[in-house]
Amino acid sequence: MNNVELVAIADVNEAEAQRVGAMMGVPHVYTDLHKLLARDDIQAVDVCLHNNYHMAATIAAFEAGKDVFCEKPMAGAYIDALKMWEASQATGRNFGIQFVTMYANEAKAAKSIIDSGQLGRIYHARSYGFRRRGRPYVDGYGTPNFVQKQHSAGGALYDMGVYHISTLLWLIGLPKVERITGKAYQEIEMDEKRRAASGYNVEELGVGFVRFEGGLSLDILEAWAVHMDKFDGSMILGNQAGLRLEPFGFYRSLGISTSTAWPTWPASIGASTTYVKMATPMMARNNTGLQPYRAACH
What we know:
Blueprint: E1 8-10, H1 14-24, E2 28-30, H2 33-37, E3 44-47, H3 54-63, E4 67-70, H4 78-91, E5 95-97, H5 105-115, E6 122-129, H6 149-152, H7 156-171, E7 177-185, H8 192-198, E8 205-212, E9 217-223, E10 235-238, E11 241-245, E12 248-252, E13 278-286, E14 289-297
Parallel strand pairs: 1-2, 3-4, 4-5, 6-9
Antiparallel strand pairs: 6-10, 7-8, 8-9, 10-11, 11-12, 13-14
Helix pairs in contact: 3-4
């Protein structure tokens, strides 16, 4: 970012703080967060600790008069996240969470489609996140702290699920939750030496089902490790159309035609559009009468 100067870094591990500071050209290195926050030349702080430590650092920054950008998830527990939000409101400081998916082109396109009413009445959404093998540390990357509940609060649901669930909730208008059910799993084999060294005690697969006020529902499937080749991306279903976020697709009926000619696609779609797929039920005439077939505009 051309308009941002990184002036200080803090970490309780002094050797790591010095290493990262030297690598990134950060002039001031601290092992005490409060000494960093006492500087009057800092406007904002990026909190990139493990999930269970977000709350204390964030509130300390607000109270020191700093704005905060915090890693996702907002916190390891709801009560901590609530305290963070209340502190930002009480101090009047800006507060952002690293939900990069909300700024993706796919999310922006979905928001535009939904806000224009093209999905009709939304009745179901699906939150999907997939890794064939991607458990931190035990599958070859990251640190043991990432897979210890006392530090991270959770596994695949906290790490990946928070992206997809938060984006979907935003897109469907943050409906009021009535009931949640779910189950967490840790079933896939792993190297026993890494299991012992990591203290791995979080979920590799999280599933859930949410009922909202008004009949809307959401199902959740988030995997760090699973014996499967892929999951389809998160999606939202309406009674007039549906959309998938990744890879992006928009699906709706253009109605029934008894003509043998191909339909005329709306000019707004355009021949070169790659993000819109229109599935069209049509009727083709042949010697036996009307037969259904499907056409798609890509």
